[in-house]
Write a structure and sequence with these properties.
8 helices; about 180 residues; mainly alpha; globular
Length: about 180
């Protein structure tokens, strides 16, 4: 059982569902325990981090997973086998969150605001993991938000489709006009 395989064991695949909530709770606990700053500033940073996730998600999906090798080849495997437990390992995603979000934001904004914003981004990533899994494995009530997510993601998975890169929202697809087939 290696955390760096494309297709993962159920234990490793579902680790995000346990470890991300734990990390978010522990991080929030550290902020509260440390008296890290005005609560309004920490909540604002977390909210902005959470909201920024949707643009990060869109950009990664469109430009990295559909544009750069070897990520493109790996992502194509997911398109070929949408029910397989294929995904980024928790070890890799947490490392990238620390390296690409926590470290620079802490250097720029200070450790507590940086941590708070990173917890928001991490919560956005957790939402993405849950929604992406649900789009492939769960039923959704017609007319519901999840039903719209499943529909758009199914359009994204059609052979030859270019677009519908947002998983948690179609907002950026509408902004960048990738919510239609070209």
């Amino acid at each position: 059982m290696t955390p760096f395989k494309l297709e993962q064991s159920p234990v490793l695949y579902f680790a995000d569902f346990v470890l991300y909530p734990a990390a978010i709770i522990i991080g929030a606990g550290v902020l509260l325990w440390q008296g890290a700053g005005p609560v309004w500033a920490l909540l604002l940073a977390a909210a902005l981090g959470f909201l920024s996730w949707s643009l990060i998600e869109y950009g990664l999906h469109r430009f990295v997973l559909h544009g750069l090798q070897p990520f493109k080849r790996w992502h194509e495997e997911h398109h070929q086998r949408p029910f397989a437990l294929i995904g980024t390992s928790t070890l890799v995603s947490l490392s990238m969150l620390g390296l690409l979000v926590l470290w620079p934001l802490s250097a720029i904004l200070g450790r507590w605001i940086g941590l708070s914003a990173t917890l928001g981004v991490g919560a956005g990533y957790l939402l993405y993991v849950l929604v992406h899994h649900a789009t492939h494995h769960w039923k959704a009530a017609p007319g519901s938000w999840m039903h719209a997510r499943k529909r758009d993601h199914a359009l994204h998975h059609r052979p030859g489709a270019h677009g519908w890169y947002g998983v948690t929202t179609s907002f950026w697809d509408r902004v960048f006009l990738t919510d239609r087939n070209r």
